[in-house]
Amino acid sequence: MLGPCLVAIVAALVLTFLFGRRRKAPRPSPDSRDQMLQTTILPDAAEMERKCNSSLEIGSTSNDTTGALHDVFLSFRGPDTRMTFTDTLYYALLNKGIRVFIDKKGIDVGDEIGPEIYQAIDDSKVCIPIFSMGYASSRWCLRELEHMMKRRKTHKLEVMPIFYDVDPSVVKLETGVYRDALTQHKRERENETVKGWEEALKEVTKIKGWDAKNTGHGELTQQIALEVLGKLEVSPIRLSDPLIGINKSVDKVIELLNVKSKDIKLVGICGIGGIGKTTLAKVVYKKLSTDFQSCSFIHDIRQASESSSFGLLDVQRQLVCDILGDKRIEIRSIDQGRNMIEKQFSKKKVLIILDDINDGRQLRVLAAEEKWFGSGSRILVTTRDKQVLSVFKNSLIYEVEGLNSQESLELFSKHAFGSNFDFPPSDFLHLSEKAIARAGGLPLTIEVIGSLLCGQEEAVWEDTLEKMEKYPCEDVLQHLMLSYEALNHGQKQIFLDVACFLAGKNERDSTYMWEDRKWFPIVEIKVLLQRSLLKIEKKKNELWMDVQLRGLGTGHLFDEKYDNPIYHSLYATYIWDNRKNDPSVVGRFHVSPLEIGKKNELWMHDQLKDLGRSIVLAENYNNPGNRSRVWDHKDALDMITRKKGTETIEAICVDFEGKSLKSEEFKNMPNIRYLEMTSGNLSKDFKDVFRELRWLSWKNCPSSLQATHFFPKELLILDLSRTGITHHWNGWTQLKVATRLKVLNLSNCKMLKETPDLSAFSSLEILILEGCGKLTKLPNSIGMLQCLVELDVSFTSIEELPNTIFDLKSLKMLKMNNSHMKLSNSIGMLQCLVELDVSFTSIEELPNTIVDLKSLKILKMNYSHMRKLPEGIVKMEKLEEIHGNYCRALEIPGDIVRLSSLKILELKETCVKNVPELPPSLVSLCLTSGAVQNFPDIFNLMNRSSLKKMYIIFGEGDDGICVELDLPYRPISNNSLRMSLPSSEISFGGWLRCTRELILLECKNLRQIQQFPSGLRKLAISNCYLLEVVDLSRLENLLELRLIALEICDIRGLEALASLQRLQVCECKSFKFSGLERLKNLQSLLLSTCPFLQTLPNLTNSKNLQCIIIGNCPELVEIEGLEKLESLKWLFIFSCSSLHSLPDLSHLKKLESYRRQ
Questions:
Q1: Cα 327 to the chain's mean position, in Å?
Q2: pLDDT (tens digit, 9 = 90+) per residue, 946-972?
Q3: From start to end of 6-159, where are the E strands?
Q4: H or E stretch covering 497
Q5: How many Cα neighbours within 13 Å face the side chain of 866?
Q6: How many Cα atoms sit within 13 Å of 995 on the Cβ side?
Q7: pLDDT tens across 780-834, in order?
Q8: What is the DSSP secondary structure assignment for residue 1014, as one 8-state letter?
Q9: Which of 117, 432, 852, 1029 could cross-link to 424 by cystine, CB 3.0-4.6 Å?
C-alpha cells in the first residue's frame, strides 16, 4: 500500500540531490520556515514519529495561567467569616499586590451559582477554601469546592485550604457537622450531586493546609499571603529550545522520585559536565513543582560556594526565602541556616533542586537528613560526583546518558542550520555526521560545534573539523576541566593514563601498575567512577540478540532498550513484507541486532579522552619528548629515532614500522613505565635502559630478539598476545629477571606448542593461554606458581590438566573452554576457586568432588554436553551463579531450591522438561526450553521480592509462554513487563500492580484482562486476537498507548487518559475512538489500517498535538478540528480514499511537513 508513497519520496530526494545542492550551510532567517515548507522532503512515518517523540517535552503538565484574570479565588461561607477572618486575609493578600476575587454580595441568597463564579475559579491561579462550621451547609460553597478540585486534577489549579474552626477530620466527613450537613443535602438533592461534594471534601483534606484555631489571624494571614506570593512568583528556571531526546530521562527520574509516595526521597542526577544534568533537572522541576507546597531551584551551587566566603551562606538564604516565602528572614551563619532548614522545613512538603553540588559539605548544610523535610518531600541533586550523595541516607542515583546518533544529528542541525531544521541538508550530511561523531553524544559539545559552524562555507567546515581532530573545542574542554581540577595527584595520573592509552584495556592489569606507583587505584578508581570520569564495562563475552529481533517476522514490537519506539506497522510492515531476509533493514530502526560485550574494560567518553590528551599536549606543544605521555605513533617514532626523548617521558605507544631501534635511542628516557610497541625489533645492549618499565606490550613481536641484556627487572605486565613466538623464543631467557611479573598474556599465540619455563615468575598471578591452538599440555612445574590466581586455557589442544595444578592454593578462576578437556576428581582440592568455566567442553557430568569447592560462586558450562548437575550441589553454600546456556541435555535438579545463595540462573535454549521450585534468593532468571512439561506458577514467580530480571520461554506455538521482566530498581519504580501467554485471563497482583511498562504480545487465547496496574506509563497490546474488552479508565498516568492487530476489541475509558501523549492504533478493525476529543495532552497520533474507521472525534481541544500520521483508512471521510491544532508540526495522510478534502491549514505557523498521498 505504501509503494506509491515511497516512490514519491525517493523521487523527491533524487530531485533535491540533483538540482538543490548547496555549498554553504544555510543561516537561519525569518523566511526559513516558509522555505522549509516548500523544500522539506517528508521522512518516513516511523522517523516522523521518532522525531515527534524526541522533541515533545513538557506541554500540558505545567499550569498555564498566563491569561488568568485573578491570582486568588476565596471560597467561604459569608455568615461565618466574611467580616472576620476572610476580610483580614483579603486585605493581607491585596497588600502583597495579589489580585483577589471575592464575592462581596453573597451568593447564598440566590438559587444557583452564576456562571461568573465558575469563570472566576477558572481564571484564578490559586483557590483558597476557608472551612468554617457552616461551610458544608452551603450547597453553593460545596459546588465551588467541587469545581476547584476538578480544575486541580485537569488544570493543576493550586488549592490551598484553611481549616478555620474545624479539624480536617470533620471536613473528611469522619465526624461532626459536615457529615450531618451532607446527610441533610441527600434528602434534598440527587445522590450523584451529593456524592461529588463528598469526594471533593475528602480529596481536599489530602492537601496540606493551615490550621487557624491556634494562631492569631493577623500572623496567619501574613504567612498565607507570603506563601501565596511564593506560589505566584515567576518560574526560577528557563528552558532553552530545542530540547532533544530528553523525554525518556525525564520519565525515569520522575519514576525514581515517585511523588505519590509519602516517603522523603533524594535523587541524584549524575554525569560528566555538558551531558545535560541541569536541563534534565529543570524539565523535571517544571513538571512536578505544582505538586508541592513550596519549591526551590538553586542554580550552580559549586560556583556560588567558591565565589566568596559567604557563598554557601547566600545559598542557604535563597533556599530559606524560596521555601518560607519571606525575604525578611535574616541568617547570620551557616549553622543558623542549617538549624532553620531543619526546623522550618520539617512540616512542609517541598521540592528542592540543588544544582551542581560538588562537595559533601554543601549537602550537609542544605539537605542532610530525611527528618529535615515534611512527608512527601523530594530533593533532586545534580552532580558530577556520586560520592557527595552518600551524605543523605538511602539516596537514589540516575546517571544521564548521552544522545544517540539520531538525537545528536537533530540537535546539531538546529544549531548549525536553524531551529526549523531537524536534519542536515544533503550537501552537509556527511560533514554533520563527522561533527557529531566527535561529540560522542554530549549535548554541550554538539551545541558548541553546531553554533561554531553555523552559516560557514563548506571549506570552513572541513578545516574546522580537521582541526578538532587534534585540538578539541576549547569551550567544551574548559567546562570539563572543572572535574579534572578537583582530582588529587593519583586520580589525575590514572585519568591521564586511561585517556592516553589504557581505554579498552583490562582494569585488573592496569591496577597492578598503579599500585606499584602508590596511587591506590582501588580507592582512586572508585572516585573516578563516582565522578563519571571513567566507566568499567563488565559485560560478559556473549553474543546476545533481543527476543523481538529473533522473532521479527511475526512480532510488531521493537525493544525500547535501543531508544526505538515500539514497532510502527504503517511503515515497518511494508519493509518486512518486501525485504524479510535483508539484515540491513535493521539499520533503519537504529537497532543493534547483535551486541558483543567486553569484560572489565576501562572506558572513557571521547570528550574526556580529548580533555586528558589536551592536558598532556599542554605540557609541551612543540616537543613530544618533553611530555609525560606520547600516544601518537608517528610522534613517538620521530622522537625516539631523533633521540628527542627526556626524563619526562613515562609512557609511549609506537609502531616501529619494521625498524630495529637501538638502545641509545631510549637512554634519554629512563622513566618509561609503559611501553606499547608494534612490529620492529630492539638491538644492541639494553642494560639499565628500562629500569622503571612496568608494562610491556609488543604486537607482532619478532621471532628473534636482537637486543642483549634486555632486563626489565621491575616488569609487572607482559602482553605478547597474537604474536608468532614459541617457547624457543630467545627473549624468554632475558625476561627471567622479571621475578615480580604479575600478568603474562600469551593468548592467540598460534605457534606456541609448549609454554616457556615459568618457574622464574614466582609472583605470577594471571596466566592467559586462551586461543593457543597448538598447545597440547601444561608442564608439571606450573604447580610451583603458588601466587597464581587466574588460569585461562580455553580453546587450546590441552585434553587434561596436570595433577600439580591442584596444588595451586591461591587459584580463584579456572577457564577451560575446550571441546577436548577433561576434568579430574582432584578439582575438589582447589579450595579457593571462585569461578569455574567448562563451557564448550564435551563434559557430560561434573565430578562429585566439585561439591567440595566451598568457595565457588560462579559455575559456567555454556554450550557443553552437560546432562546434569552433581548430586549434593546444595552443599555449595556460596554458589551464586549457574550458566548453562545451550546445554541441550541438561536437567535441573529437584533440590536446586536449597541453593540459598543462588542469584543468577541462565539456561537459554535448553530442552529442560521439568522446572522445579526455584530458590527464593534468585535475582535474575533466564530459562528457555521448547520441551517444558512442568513449571512453577508464572505469576507467583514474578511476585518474588528479590527478582529483578526474568526472561522465560516455555513451549512452542500457540501454547508457548514468553515473559520478559525488567525491574532495575527496588522498590518498584521503573519496571517493564513483556508477556506472551496461552492464558485466557490475566490479572496483576502483588508488586505487579506497580508495573510501569507492559507489553502483551501474541497472547492468542487472551479474552480478558481483569485490571491494569494503575501506575502504567506505557502499554502495548499486539496480536491478541480474541481480546474482547480493554478497560483503560484507571490509567490516568498512561503516557503511551499502542494497540496493534486487535480485531474485535472494545476499548473503553479512552477519555480517562488525562496524561496520554502518544497514541498508536494499527490493524484494529472495530476500534472506536470515543473520548479522543478529551485527550488534551496528546502529542502524537498514529492510525493505520483501520478499515472501518469513518470519522474521528473533533480534535479542536488537542492543543498539544504535534504529529498526525493516518494511513490505509479507506472509509475515513472527515478529520474535524484539524485547522485549529496550533502546535501541529507534521501531518502525513496516505491511502485514505474517502477523505476528499481537508480544511485550510495555511495559518498553522508551526507546520513543518505536510504530505497527502
A1: 39
A2: 788 888 877 665 455 667 766 554 443
A3: 70-75, 100-101, 124-131, 158-159
A4: helix 489-497
A5: 30
A6: 25
A7: 889 999 999 999 999 999 988 898 998 899 999 999 988 778 888 889 999 999 9
A8: T
A9: 432
